[in-house]
Design a protein that fits this description.
Elements (H helix, E strand, L loop, with lengths): L1 H56 L5 H11 L1 E7 L2 E2 L1 H6 L6 H14 L6 E7 L2 E12 L4 E12 L2 E10 L1 H72 L4 H32 L8 E3 L1 H18 L3 E5 L8 E3 L1 H18 L5 E9 L2 E8 L6 H4 L22 H11 L3 E6 L5 E6 L1
């Protein structure tokens, strides 16, 4: 399931970003090409103004001047005197390969243009009235777009007409190269975005996947833990039907003990469930931690003595400031740690309960010289239903105690950790 979600999120993130990037690229290309076209047309108009000024000031139009102007601006000139082509046109294109047709097309295009599609300039010059038109047209014969200017110089009954054509092939090639460049950039960026989105969504989904895996493991472990006492209860109840009254009392006692185990397990599971839903009940109040530890010591000292264990309590000298905690929850944490220490410390062992103050922090420690915990197990010791392999046979431990202790301390904003004790054993330290 997570693989499909991972793929879909990757496509969604990369797709949305790619679409935004594509739209921005298209907008940039539109603005850029409009600017290139406008600049090209303005440059063409400036050249036409220069040519018009030169024509206006010259009495004789030389072929040398026309050739020079063509070479400078990459233009094509057609000169007509009262509609009759100049010799320059024939010399410039002796084979007449499309020149006449191109000239006709440009003049036909001008006749079809409206006033909004052409720039018209009229002025009175030294040699007569000067009129020139600038517009764009597409030639069907050459399949090329041109800027075209028709310059008309009227002197009495004579009209000199100069048609100037500027091909837009170079501009279109520049635009085409720019489009290809942006297309390649967008493709490369989309690939990089896809790779980034794959890793980024993977990082986002990792804690969700781990949480689901932990929930599945939690349900499986809880089902396993519940199955054993329930099987014992059902078996004892089945045996009660045919048993004598004396034996029924033993079966009933077994049912009661296993029922207590189920009740304890359900209570622990509900506690962890409240933690998961952020409804963990913590009621903080100013608390004397030294008094709290003394009460815990007095409660567990008989149990430790019964197992031939030495339980000691170490407190700081002098009065201690109050600590803002939930006394019942902290007592529960100390009880969990002491119960584990008593369970896994061999006979004649030692357990030390201590309290220390470091500036604004309190450290509660439970240290034993028991079987100890390996480095591999230390990483998972606070996981739910996790138990060190050599302790799995104990029926009074479900592997939830340290998980509950961890959640309680986390709700207090503190920390809990386990280290190796000097001389063997383990040391659990709670910092508040």
């Amino acid at each position: 399931m997570f693989k499909k979600v991972h793929l879909r999120l990757t496509l969604l993130c990369a797709g949305i970003t790619a679409v935004i990037m594509l739209v921005m690229s298209l907008c940039y290309l539109y603005v850029s090409e409009k600017g290139l076209y406008r600049n090209q047309f303005q440059a063409f108009q400036n050249d036409i103004n220069t040519i018009s000024t030169n024509l206006e000031q010259q009495n004789v139009i030389s072929m040398e001047w026309l050739s020079k102007m063509e070479a400078q601006g990459n233009y094509r000139f057609f000169v007509l005197d009262n509609g009759v082509p100049f010799l320059f046109n024939q010399l410039n294109d002796p084979a007449d390969s499309g020149s006449s047709r191109l000239l006709l097309e440009s003049r036909d295009s001008r006749n079809k243009l409206s006033e909004q599609n052409a720039t018209v300039t009229v002025s009175d010059g030294i040699n007569g009235t000067l009129t020139h038109y600038e517009y764009e047209f597409s030639s069907p014969s050459t399949e090329t777009r041109y800027f075209c200017s028709v310059i008309q110089l009227g002197t009495g009954s004579s009209v000199l007409e100069v048609v100037v054509l500027s091909s837009l092939q170079r501009l279109e090639l520049q635009m085409q190269e720019q489009r290809v460049r942006f297309l390649l950039i967008d493709i490369a960026a989309t690939i990089l975005l896809g790779v980034f989105a794959w890793f980024f969504t993977g990082i986002l989904l990792k804690p969700i996947a781990e949480n689901q895996q932990k929930q599945a493991m939690f349900v499986a472990a809880a089902s396993h833990e519940l199955r054993t006492p329930l099987s014992v209860i059902l078996s004892a109840a089945e045996c009660c039907r045919d048993a004598t009254p004396e034996r029924q009392e033993g079966f009933i006692r077994t049912i009661y003990q296993e029922g207590l185990r189920v009740s304890s397990l359900v209570t622990d599971m509900l506690t962890l469930s409240q933690s998961d839903s952020h409804r963990f009940p913590v009621r903080k109040e100013p608390t004397e931690l030294d008094t709290l530890l003394m009460n815990s010591y007095e409660a567990f000292e008989p149990l430790a003595r019964e197992k031939s264990l030495q339980l000691s309590l170490t407190l700081p000298d002098g009065a201690l400031p109050l600590c803002d905690v939930d006394p019942e929850r902290i007592s529960q944490v100390i009880a969990i740690l002491l119960h584990n220490a008593i369970s896994y410390t061999p006979d004649q062992g030692r357990i030390e309960l201590s309290l220390a103050r470091h500036k604004e922090r309190f450290a509660v420690s439970v240290q034993d010289n028991g079987i100890g915990i390996s480095d591999a197990d230390k990483k998972r010791i606070f996981d739910r239903f996790y138990r060190v392999e050599k302790s799995r046979s104990r029926k009074d431990h479900f592997g939830l105690g340290l998980s509950i202790a961890y959640e309680i301390i986390k709700a207090h904003g503190g920390s809990i950790q386990v280290t190796d004790a000097e001389g063997g054993g383990s040391c659990f330290t709670v910092v508040l």
